[in-house]
């Protein structure tokens, strides 16, 4: 298969909230130079803060690939989006998706790609066989981001830590385990599309033996406390064999995302359970910090909130995107 070409036109469809466009938002935040604009249908609530462009306008601006930049429960493609995707293919663009459904499984899209000799990229689906995890010690260092819930900033945390380490001249690589991270890194394995028995093996493959002073910064997924996604989180923890863990949290949540009857865990409770599971494959695993998505807090309360957490947890606490991760890397 050919390589995915940028620049991108970010397709948001008509998602009902900003979080539904988190794939597109992540690409815009970390690879803004690749994104020429966004394409939204009537009723779309999300906004990436970039130009609204038609397909023709985007092509004129140099766009090569239409990115379906949304997430939804079940990973399906709404039927009324198909016409725009086919239009992009008929006008010479490739199309990429991080959804569970494969673009080529949809007849209209597959036929449009075939008649235009266009490429379809399904970054969520592994393209090779993966071994089961072995839990054997390996050289190099690894850090894993874990969370109190899903969609709390584990990818942003991992990218920010990689950026801080590299700014100091450290050897560090971000290891993508989700579709957005793969779009950003250009490589990775989408862990939630891996058959359960092979999840830990996939993470071992992503972060193999390396130089003793090299850090693999592994993007986390889900939460051990989320009934829907705990299995993915546990496989990641065991496969990472992390030397260092960072807890990620969004403080305005009143319940687990998508499950109103299920409250969020306490932060110390979350640290304790993640550490217990991490020590199954690395008995020396330890937490080195807490990353908080403070975007929902009033600016006047952010510093006091972070200071309060630091005192309670005895760990450096920061917003990795707006405040950086210097204190956490110092602690490492």
From TrEMBL:
<protein>
    <submittedName>
        <fullName>DUF1611 domain-containing protein</fullName>
    </submittedName>
</protein>
<dbReference type="Pfam" id="PF07755">
    <property type="entry name" value="DUF1611"/>
</dbReference>
<dbReference type="InterPro" id="IPR011669">
    <property type="entry name" value="DgcN-like"/>
</dbReference>
<dbReference type="InterPro" id="IPR027417">
    <property type="entry name" value="P-loop_NTPase"/>
</dbReference>
<dbReference type="InterPro" id="IPR035402">
    <property type="entry name" value="DgcN-like_N"/>
</dbReference>
<feature type="domain" description="D-glutamate N-acetyltransferase-like N-terminal">
    <location>
        <begin position="54"/>
        <end position="126"/>
    </location>
</feature>
<feature type="domain" description="D-glutamate N-acetyltransferase-like C-terminal">
    <location>
        <begin position="130"/>
        <end position="329"/>
    </location>
</feature>
<dbReference type="InterPro" id="IPR035086">
    <property type="entry name" value="DgcN-like_C"/>
</dbReference>
<dbReference type="Pfam" id="PF17396">
    <property type="entry name" value="DUF1611_N"/>
</dbReference>
């Amino acid at each position: 298969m050919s390589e995915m070409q940028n620049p991108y036109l970010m397709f948001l469809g008509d998602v009902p909230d900003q979080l539904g466009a988190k794939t597109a938002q992540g690409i815009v935040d970390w690879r803004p130079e690749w994104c020429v604009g966004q394409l939204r249908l009537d009723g779309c609530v999300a906004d990436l803060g970039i130009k609204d462009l038609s397909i023709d306008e985007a092509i004129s601006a140099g766009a090569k690939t239409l990115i379906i930049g949304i997430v939804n429960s079940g990973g399906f493609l709404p039927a009324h989006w198909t016409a725009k995707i086919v239009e992009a293919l008929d006008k010479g663009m490739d199309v990429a998706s991080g959804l569970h459904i494969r673009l080529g499984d949809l007849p209209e899209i597959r036929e449009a790609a075939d008649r235009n000799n266009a490429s379809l990229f399904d970054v969520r689906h592994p393209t090779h066989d993966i071994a089961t995890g072995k839990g054997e010690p390996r050289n190099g260092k690894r850090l894993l981001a874990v969370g109190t819930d899903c969609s709390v900033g584990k990818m942003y945390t991992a990218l920010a830590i990689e950026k801080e380490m590299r700014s100091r001249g450290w050897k560090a690589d971000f290891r993508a385990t989700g579709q957005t991270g793969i779009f950003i890194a250009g490589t990775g394995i989408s862990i939630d599309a891996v058959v359960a028995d092979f999840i830990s093996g996939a993470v071992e493959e992503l972060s193999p033996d390396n130089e003793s002073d090299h850090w693999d910064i592994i993007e986390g997924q889900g939460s051990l406390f989320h009934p829907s996604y705990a299995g993915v989180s546990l496989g990641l923890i065991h496969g990472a064999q992390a030397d260092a863990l960072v807890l990620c949290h969004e403080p305005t949540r009143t319940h687990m995302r998508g499950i109103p009857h299920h409250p969020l865990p306490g932060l110390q409770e979350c640290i304790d359970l993640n550490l217990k599971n991490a020590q199954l494959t690395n008995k020396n695993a330890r937490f080195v910090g807490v990353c908080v998505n403070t975007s929902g807090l009033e600016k006047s309360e952010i510093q006091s909130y972070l200071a309060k957490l630091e005192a309670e947890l005895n760990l450096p606490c920061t917003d990795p995107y707006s405040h950086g991760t210097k204190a956490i890397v110092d602690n490492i």
